[in-house]
Write a structure and sequence with these properties.
single chain; 764 residues; 52% helix; Beta-Lactamase; alpha+beta; 5-stranded antiparallel β-sheet
Length: 764
Amino acid sequence: MRSHLSALLLVSMLLMLCVVGSTVLAYRIPRIEREAQASLQREVAETGARVELLLSAQQERLALLAALLDTTPASRADAVLDKAVRHGDPMRAVYWVSPQGRIVAAGLPDGGPARRASLLGSDLSANGLFRAASAGAGAAWSGRYQSVLAGDVLAGVARRDRRGGVLIAEVPLDLLLQTVEVAAGAGAASVWVVDRNGEIIADTDDGRDVGKFNIRSWPLMQALLRGREIDGRQHFQGADFRVASVHSAALDWYFVGHVPLGLANPEVRGMVLAVLASIAGCLAIGLLIAPAWARTMARPLQGIVARAAQTMGGAASVQAWPRGRVAEFNHLSDKLTEMAQALHEREQRFSDIFNASPVPMAVSDLRNASRLLYANDAWCSTLMHRREDALGRTGLELGLFSEAQRDALRRQAQHGDMKIEFAMRRGDGALLQTQTFGRRVAVGGEDWLIWANVDIGPLRRVEQAQRELNQQLEARVRQRTDALAAAHDALSATVAQLRAAQDELVRSEKMAALGQLVAGVAHELNTPLGNGVMAVSAMADATRRFQSAMQAGLKRTDLRALVDGVQQGVDIAGRNLHRAADLVHSFKQVAVDQTSAQRRRFALGEVVHEMVVSLQPSFARKPWRIDVDVPATGLQMDSYPGALGQAVGNLIQNAVLHGFDGRAHGTVRITAGPAQEGWVWLRVADDGRGIAAEHIGRIFEPFMTTRMGRGGTGLGLHISYNAVVDLLGGTLTVHSTEGQGATFEMRLPRLAPLTAPAVAPGAA
């Protein structure tokens, strides 16, 4: 045991150290990385700000020089620029360039007239620095600027003056490198200064990476140019780096800082080495103390194990558990003592609960002829057997059931769970109708059956009473059903009569409308036909006069009179007969559409026009008029023109009958237009009396009218609503304020639903 404890101690110590070390590394390394990222971002931002500040001195010198040139004559400009270059200024050369890009003055270190003369008038309009300064209001910098004077690569700064000209100063690259190194200070990170072309124009490593490679094609530079947030982890130059960047808007340069990741980071590498050293030291100490600790722990532990074995074997808990000098083992002995006492109390508690259960319960040993092992108080009182007489005996010996019932119980118990209903005999000989539930369980290697009995005698009596009550209720339901069937038959007959009356009213209303239509048609046709007859009569008179003139001697004037009279008569008769033919065609089209329920393609304006023409005779001698504002084309539909015309006609007739009743004037206005895609709207509005608020919610119901017995049947709007909704597939709504007229609006699909009735709605 001592060797086992020693090994256990070492393994535990090693495992604990590994867990602690891993936890420290898992916690500390990400923290170091985050701190390094934040520190790198701050360092790069501070470097960029310092570089801007240090280079702003050059920008200010250039600004002062531009202001001085504004007040200096052009002839003195070269001298001023020469003086600026010679008196200790880091600028190697300065050029004053006109707005057109020509050098008009130059400041040179030696002031040689030959070199100045070769520079003056040179065209710098294509120079990138000149163009950048001309386009902006501030200073523009370039880290890879090709000198106009010597042709070598250096730094350049330019600034536009108030006249639109540009001052360009050439600055040595050493100045830029020194400025970046001074701005970076003693930081741990390497910082690149990169222009928009991806050129590294300066760094904090003594110019080690300047001009060595271009990073424009790197994902890092592409993200910077697009203004996107860069990933803090980047891979380049064969290694992984943590990267941070800052863009200088004043210089239009990018300051990119980078430090190595992982073990290449000195701080991370130091943390890993410290943890490994700590684990090795602790393991060496454990090897020295493990054997002694094992000997100390083994002696009391062996006593505790032996006492636990005795307790598990059922020994009485009268002897105290072993104790020693190890406080933990003493605490373990105390807890084991408490556990043994708790087990005894729990066993007693389960026994009390078992006996307190109101349901009769018992436990039988299936391996010993199902003899009773336990029985609760409810079982003893219900079956009237004393516990001491029942335990150890079988149910057959107690007379609880017969051999057939015992065999049925055994078969049920073979399946694990048991549920059976049978009559048990109590100790007093009375039969008890029970439902028995059981479950087969294995306890400590024994095969037990736990079973409970429920007295279901009262339940069966209640069920019998319920069956008798159900029979009575079924008889009553049959009687009530017969009565309801008789009432239904009577109600069906009444509904059939009402429907017949409704059909008759519809037919009567249509006949009345037909009478009015015929009278109107006759009136409208009377005038053109009368005019035609009059024209024909006039032509007959002219013919008779011509015949008389022929007998007396024909003259040219007689022939001209005949021709003029016939021509006039033909014109009058033709116009009136065409008018009559148009009227007949409109009446015929309306009649065909309304009686055939024919589906066809048509223009909405065409149907409205034909319906208005057919109704116009009924308005001929009345102070009412119909205004139509419906486009003749553009509102094409594939639908049922008869149903649509009938709905429009009913709405117009409703306005005349109800809206203009008792009024000396009235106007019905019909308008239409396109709605959402595939739909049109059609409004029929009047300026009549309007609809009362208490009636507006019921106007589409059948037989809803305020003129019942005075020419109104209450079916017109009902028929229109059914035609629009059921046949045309649209909606019909009404808006009205009493005393201000009413507006009925249809919303109709250009393509009606495919299903349609065999005849038009409302057709008799």
